[in-house]
Fold:
Amino acid sequence: MGFEDELERAIPHLRRYARALTRDLTRADDLVQDCLERALARRHLFRPGSPLKPWLFRIMHNIHVNELRARAARPAEVAFDPAAADASAAARAGERLALRDVARALDALSEEQRQVLLLVVLEDFTYREVAEVLGIPVGTVMSRLSRARETLRRALDGEGPRLRRVK
Amino acid sequence: MSAAGEPPSEAELHAYVDDQLSAERRAEVEEWLRSHPAERARLDAYARQNRLIRELFPPVEGDGGLGSRLLRRLHRRAARWRLAASVLLLLTGFAAGYGTARLDSFARRPPPREVAVALDGIRAYRVYVSEVRHPVEVGADEEAHLVAWLSNRLGAPLRAPDLTASGYVLIGGRLLPDARGRPAAQFMYEDAAGRRITLYLSRDGDREGSSFRYWQRGEVAAFSWREEGLAFALVGPPERELLLRLARDVYAQYREPAPGGAG
Structure:
């Protein structure tokens, strides 16, 4: 399979992870677009024969981290759809309660823990691949994963202290 | 990963949840879990997290046009390059210079007021809301004076909206500088439980309105918008429905004709 075919095949995966990272459809696709452009520009740096997907995710991760740094002083804009906001809270509350709890609990994780968890869960990357994508040792991947899951468990099962105490 | 029969490591327990163990080791871990119900329950919770996270972010279909857009652009670029390589070589220097200058001006352009007001409003909220003894400069007992004073300083007819319908009572307000060093106003409200929200206002050179935008950082969130020469930020705890209700209330009250035709 050629580089371009493999690239195209990876796009839906990049979009899913970008959406989970940014929680914003437009920003997610901007992120993927930046990633694809950079990947093509650096195509000569890619080792043929090695898997393309982790390489692409690593590029996207680095773009995302740089953006986060640039925006560090600013609050994040959260996509807001007035129509959706009007849909009664009660309707969403019932069956989607668990999902909302997960969303909230994920938001409360540190960026680093969230990235590890999302890469493992959404994209079925091996721990070694996650380490490669994030540019950290496998041991760090494991400790972040472990902490992320414990924090989520306490938040979702209502055990222990609340995720983030209000100062 | 580790020798047969040995108790699984923490890493292996995660690998069990994520289905990253060899079939053989998987069977051993499964066997071990039978006699360790607490660990079994923990791993079940992790597996449930995985399911919920996958449900929360379902797989994306298609490339949203990104691939074809990109390839089209590349092909165009390649064609152009082949056709006019020599010309391009000459022009590249100019183009690069032009591109940089444009990017630069984009980067330096100040954000629209409804963005800036949200950032300023959140900053001010963080500073003053935690104040116990002096959260406001002028209390609600002098509301008429407060509103007249702030209107005067901002040079626009302000009002302290009545938010009692949502359970929030005015406790007062203050004058403060925004990020540009121009006067801005902050009205603070409190509910029966002592939770506070603020309405932050500054002048906007543009009279055109904007839509509502929602911002969140940590424990603080805001709706911001522009209307009739003012930029508004309604800032409070990150509860979207509550803040939206309050923001709409503020918006509606600012559109009503001025009481007593004050000017």
